[in-house]
Amino acid sequence: MNLHQMLKKRAAEGKPLRVGLIGAGKFGAMYLAQVPRTPGVHLAGIADLSPAGARASLERVGWKPERFGAASLDDALARGNTHLTEDWQALVAHPALDIIVECTGHPPAAVEHCLGAFAHGKHVVNVTVEADAFCGPLLARKAQEAGVVYSLAYGDQPALICDLVDWARAAGFPVVAAGRGHKWLPHFSDSTPDTVWGNYGLTPEQAKIGGLNPKMFNSFLDGSKPSIECTAVCNATGLAAPPDGLTYPSASVDDIPFVCRPIAEGGVLHQKGQVEVISSLDKDGRAIPYDIRMGVFVVFEGETEYIRNCFKEYMVRTDPTGRYACLYKRWHLIGLELGISVASVGLRREPTGVATGFNADVVATAKRDLKAGELLDGEGGYTVWGKLFQASKSLAIGALPLGLAHNVKLARDVKKGRSLTWADVKIDESLPAYKVRREMERLFGAR
């Protein structure tokens, strides 16, 4: 609980954490809004393929032009301001930088950025959880071999869920379930960028004001992002994926312990120690009061009568048996909280969530009947959505991970609802991300 004091000490000593950011989109902009307010951190460089877009993000969050007017990284380090560049390789290679924040949202590119940072001895906070979902266990191993820290990004739901799971276990509670909320109805899996705002609950005008990307937000809505994030949680915590994907039970916050308990006890879980996502809508589409749509939760168990009596004494909301209780956060603040990861990695050398095994996977699944020769357009698009799989099942069928289902041509027809396999596509096997994924399957698949 002393990160702020440690940051203040670094500021007083004139030794701030020196950070490079790759990608200045929505998540990156939210982090940029907080950096000037955080002691002991110097954002020395921003790499973005669109410098004009990066400047627009900086101006939108209130940065003055002189703050990001450094002519080079060396100039930025000398003057205490920020250099904008298109050259991510120069950013990760600079010897003075400590931490790289990967914030592009582009999975194959993110893998290259992470590997490049490791090669130059840089810690990485990986905001692009899509990359972690298809090769996080191997990225974590490669970071360890390089002697650096690789971390999920606090503020994003996977790291917040990992934090709650760690709290429960460190306090001595068995974890029964953990996950996040979502606005979900079954037909949302068919949603496209053309239908996203109506389903999401925003007008196109509101989305435009917020600078929101319809394809990205559609990946939240159609189930891809919940599956991606639950994959990262499973691989970081050892929790299990449901045997046939997320089921999205409906529940208010107070009813989560009632729903997230084993099937044999009246809940939806196939086993204790499982991830799940709670819908904020009833099956008929009505909104549930006191929902957890934008939040995260952990369900934990009182194993003894004494502990269950403590729950009762302190008015903890439980299931009817008094055995299962829930701790939650109803909101997450995305990039506004990212500084927690930067501080934890830079000061404590501790990740805010990192893959420890290959327990789950997110698999590209056809949104409609697809024809040979079509190009897949990745998460949130018109062709596929991501389904949560147990890793053993994914490997058994040779499933195509969602993170590599972008700009890839189909080799044969695929019916709506079927999960794709490597055999269904013609993929560029020279891609670093493809090689990393296949290497991970060889190293972790036999376990």
Verbal overview:
With 447 residues, the chain is an alpha/beta fold. The protein has three domains: 167 residues, NAD(P)-binding Rossmann-like Domain (Rossmann fold, 3-Layer(aba) Sandwich), CATH 3.40.50.720; 136 residues, no CATH class; 85 residues, Type Iii Antifreeze Protein Isoform Hplc 12, CATH 3.90.1210.10. The chain is 36% helix and 17% strand. It contains 17 helices and 15 strands. The strands form four sheets. It has a six-stranded parallel sheet with strand order 3-2-1-4-5-6, with helices on both faces. Strands 8-7-9-10 form a four-stranded mixed sheet. Helix 7 links the parallel strand 5 and strand 6. The longest helix is centred in the first third of the chain and has 18 residues.
Shape descriptor: globular
Over all CA atoms, what is the radius of gyration?
22 Å
Helix content: 25-40%
CATH class of the largest domain: Alpha Beta
Report mean pLDDT, rounded to a whole number.
Answer: 95
